[in-house]
Design brief:
Elements: H1 20-27, H2 32-48, H3 52-69, H4 72-88, H5 92-108, H6 112-128, H7 132-148, H8 152-168, H9 172-189, H10 192-202
Helix pairs in contact: 1-2, 2-3, 2-4, 3-4, 4-5, 5-6, 6-7, 7-8, 8-9, 9-10
Length: about 200
């Protein structure tokens, strides 16, 4: 299975239950900046509940506020997660549109570190639409950034994705190289479920 990046790395994401009633209560008297954060929290809760229509509505509300107040980082976050929802809905054209917007926002604030996750997500879209060469190109860009910042878990995830793409291309030398590297990092970090997945893919 390919690994997806949300605005924060999905595999490391806090899956705790969000008290949506409390957040809605906070929204009533919240500042615009806090409203953006509350709407995003609601969007994430709706996404986890697989209520994609509601999640999109909440993320779009947060995006509108972020753009109106010039909060570039929050706009980048919202557009990436809107792209993620469209990806899960298999609406790859809209997914790519919003990932591209997210990338542009992160570039505007010179946030190279966060660009890596979005580049991975763009690669996922290209993979799903059979643009394999483009997928490899974007995975490699994402991997370069994550290596630069020493983000081991993200490096392992991208190498795992890249290995699977190479495997599909029957480029077994590159596939095995990336999958083994991915497996060793997962093992070092104690992500044994992912160690097993990588081992299964190596065969």
């Amino acid at each position: 299975t390919l690994t997806f990046f949300s605005a924060t790395f999905l595999m490391a994401q806090d899956k705790s239950i969000v008290n949506t009633d409390s957040i809605r209560a906070l929204l009533k008297d919240a500042s615009q900046s806090d409203s953006i954060k509350h709407l995003m929290a609601l969007g994430e809760a709706s996404f986890q509940a697989e209520d994609f229509a509601t999640a999109l509505s909440q993320y779009f509300q947060s995006l509108k506020l972020a753009e109106a107040t010039g909060e570039v980082h929050q706009a980048a976050y919202a557009t990436n997660n809107i792209g993620r929802i469209y990806y899960d809905m298999k609406n790859y054209e809209e997914g790519l549109t919003y990932f591209d917007k997210s990338l542009q926002y992160y570039q505007a604030e010179n946030n190279e570190k966060s660009q890596g996750g979005v580049l991975n997500n763009i690669a996922l879209i290209y993979y799903e639409t059979d643009s394999i060469d483009r997928a490899i190109e974007y995975y490699q860009k994402a991997l370069h950034i994550k290596k630069k910042y020493g983000e081991k878990l993200n490096i392992a995830a991208i190498q795992h994705n890249l290995g699977l793409v190479y495997m599909q291309q029957k480029d077994y030398a590159h596939a095995i190289q990336d999958l083994i590297s991915s497996r060793e990092i997962f093992k070092e970090l104690g992500y044994y479920k992912h160690v097993a997945n990588a081992s299964n893919n190596i065969g």
